Amino acid sequence: MDAEQFRRAGYQAIDRICDYHDSLRDRPVSSQVKPGYLRKALPSSAPTEGEDFQLIADDYQKYIIPGLTHWQHPSFYAYFPTSSTFEGILAELYASSTSNPGFNWSASPACTELEAVVMDWTAQLLGLDKSFYNISEVGGGVIQTSASDSALVATVAARSRYIREHPHVAVEKLVLYITTQTHSLGKKAGLVLGLKVRALEVTAEDDFGLRGETFRVALEEDVDAGLHPFMLIGTVGTTSSGAVDRLDEIAEVAKDYPFLWLHVDAAWAGVAFVCPEYREAYQLPAINNFVDSFCTNFHKWGLIHFDGSCLWVRHRKHLTDALDVTPEFLRSKHGDAGTAIDYRNWHLGLGRRFRSLKFWFGLRVRGVNGFRKYISDTINLNTKFAQSIYDSDIFSVVTKPSLAMTVFRIAPKSLPHLRTPELNALNRAFYARLAARSDIAITQTDLNGVFCIRMVIGAEQTVESDIEHALALMRNEAAVLVRNWARMGRRRGKKPFVDSSHSR
Predict the structure, then answer these.
(1) Which of 53, 99, 232, 446 counts the highest number of beta carbons within 10 A?
(2) pLDDT (tens digit, 9 = 90+) per residue, 277-303?
(3) Nearest Cα to 498, choosing from 475, 474, 472, 477?
(4) Exposed e or buried b for every residue in 86-119, given b needs 16+ CB within 10 A?
């Protein structure tokens, strides 16, 4: 493809991307294809001779678009949101037009320097303490691929620091703490690094957040058993319920364990710190005063394209001491002199994408007020949704709503005798009906044995009428199940009848 062919194809691509976003509301939310559809549609091998690009572009529309789940659809409420903006698309286009591995300052100075700048911009945006700024030359921020990568990097740094200070301690004696509501990234970090992981129980009475006393008891037990606690991964905004660990209490306990690394995973909820009114309730003061590392994903709820996970550390030297491997061919004048950041020593890989460009574009196009408005709008929509659940005779909130997330279940007032196993069966059938629909995407979870439904609002196109539509279809689907349950009743020795088939 030459420059003129690229120009023509580019014009068409931009038009088609605009048409795609304009038509999202009219598309099914989830892909309707069956497993293996693409293998059947495509040739068994690559073409021997090159093909006309128009054919390739048309095949994208024909074969790929139908196989996509539309995460920016206004009726997508599953998992967590994934951002996509026009300014972000342009940033990715520009970044890919100057492809380079960006492993150190010399590889492309602008890539390193812009990342250092935008990580300070985002730190300011969130209200992080200045000790986390790159300009401090002590702490600093770096863009990672995902919160899982951020947690893994932080765990490597924490382990390295502990072993360096306690050289006679065997790795098998180290303990990494998470909770029963921590994202799988905690267990995965332990699996990858061969570490003992202890998951601490959290309860509904504490809104599924870890309390300081629970942590203290676990630490004392493990120390008495000859183990060495070295790290806790705390969470602000758990995946299942948006729960918040009591970092203020945890920090007080951790004062008695000076080599304990506190990492905070705020992959989804951390972006809400752009709005100052949520900072205290979601533990920003404790983060600023006590934690060693903090992560939030702007590619979830922060209007930045995937991948854009932001990791800040209070002491960058702990990262570089753990991850710096510098063969002769990677040495540079500025790296040796310490006059420029070598981000290759801040993550597990060597090469790095030019991810900071989309942050720079997004922050400049939206401004601080634009980010705050977007976050506030989605939280306000969830507040209205949650109030409808509170007011309902058929639904019940399982745990208090968190920012733009509500966790709920069917718990009909007309059937007050139903116990947890029966309600779980009813809600599994309810979720099956919702999952079978093409006009909504939503996910389920389990909170200490209670099966429930997660509603997370975040798509930029979502408006109040979309929430009303979601409530209406949920009520209709739930009503079918409750009517069937009430009609059939409970037969002695048999399970109640639950019709989970999808009907409209």
Answers:
(1) 232
(2) 999 999 999 999 999 999 999 999 999
(3) 477
(4) ebbbebbeebeeeeeebbbbebbeebbebbbebb
Question: Contact at 8 Å (CB) between 291 and 132?
Answer: no
pTM of the model: 0.94
Evaluated on CA atoms 67, 68, 73, 79, the torsion sign reads: positive
Residue pLDDT, tens place only, 109-160: 999 999 999 999 999 999 999 999 999 999 999 999 999 999 999 999 999 9
How many Cα atoms are found within 13 Å in the side-chain-facing hemisphere of 35? Answer: 0
CA-wise closest residue to 379 among 344, 400, 406: 406
- The residue with tokens 């599924």 is 208
Q: Which of the four pLDDT bands, split at 50, 70 and 90, describes residue 494?
A: very low
CA distance 124 to 276: 11
End-to-end CA distance of the chain: 49
Tell me the residue ranges of DSSP E strands in 104-259: 140-144, 174-179, 196-200, 228-235
In 3-state terms, what secondary structure has residue 212?
helix
Query: Can you tell me the distance from the alpha carbon of 84 to that of 72, in angstroms, rounded to the nearest whole number?
Result: 7
Q: Could you give phi then psi for residue 263, rounded to 5 degrees?
A: -110, 135
**Structural Rg of the chain based on CA atoms:** 25
Give SS3 for 197. Answer: strand
Tokens 């790296």: give the residue: 335
Q: Taking CA 295 as the corner, what is the angle to CA 290 and CA 298, rounded to the nearest 5 degrees?
A: 140
Alpha carbons 101 and 350: distance in angstroms, whole number: 8
More confident residue, 490 or 462: 462
pLDDT for residue 491: 53
Q: Which of 395, 407, 392, 500 is closest to 452 using CA atoms?
A: 407
Mean residue pLDDT of the chain comes to 94
Q: How far is CA 157 from CA 133, 153, 351, 375, 436, in A?
A: 18, 6, 19, 32, 44
Report the alpha-carbon distance of residue 387 to residue 485 in Å, rounded. Answer: 26
DSSP secondary structure letter of residue 390: H
199-250 pLDDT, tens digit per residue, is 999 999 999 999 999 999 999 999 999 999 999 999 999 999 999 999 999 9
Query: Helices marked H in 392-488 — which ranges?
Result: 420-435, 464-488
